Amino acid sequence: MNSEPGPDVGAPTGPHGGVQSVDRALAVLEILARTGHAGVSEIAEELGIHKSTASRLLGSLVSREMVHQNSERGKYQLGFGILRLAGSIPGRLSLVREARPVLESLADEFKETVNLAVLRSNYAVNVDQAMGPATLATYDWVGSLTPLHATSSGKVLLAALTAADRDRILKETGLPARTPRTITSRKKLEHQLLNVVRNGYAMVHEEFEIGLTAVAVPVFNHVGLVIGALSISGPAFRFEPEAVPGAVETLKEAGLLTSAKMGYTRR
Q1: Best CA proximity match to 173, nearest among 118, 251, 242, 121
Q2: pTM beyond 0.85
């Protein structure tokens, strides 16, 4: 017995039909982006529409070069039209611009210094900063080069590198002690980095500067690569992120929000 929906169940009707078609066309693109390729039947089944409707959607996307049909297997995949659209984005999304509201929100909520850092020339470079209204901090970290092994942002960036890139950088920079609490053992550092990946954040207690505690989370781009780190830092005597209910989770969500602004889709 035929279990497919009746004829043209998926066909748009009424005043909202056009919007429904757009929504379904975008859903088709998302399916192909996720799976790499799919046939008419697979797409129809996932969207819960008739095969004839899925075929019309694909035909329209093919005509716009958003989708390409592999002639050998009859499967569909994303087309070069997608690249044209992506290439039309002016330059690339500005991480600093997109992250700015998030930095300000975190600084206002936690009343501490919030920084955005990226990897540059073997160091974590702070490219933006926001300060809470009651913070005692007055130091401007923007433009500062900070060691990867001794800072929360640096550890987030280090943890995201391939083993080969991490090995190269650490051989070039070494693991100099900034304070008595700095991790200078490569074995201990690698263990910490595994925890960073597992937990989704990095924390340092007076490793970079005596009296300074910091916690950082990654920021991802549209293909899931770490392109930056969001951190909150404050005096050790009053700032203990793990002791504040929901603080680490709030920072993680802020990192994901910034990532979403850069095109990242949460897995």
Answers
A1: 121
A2: no
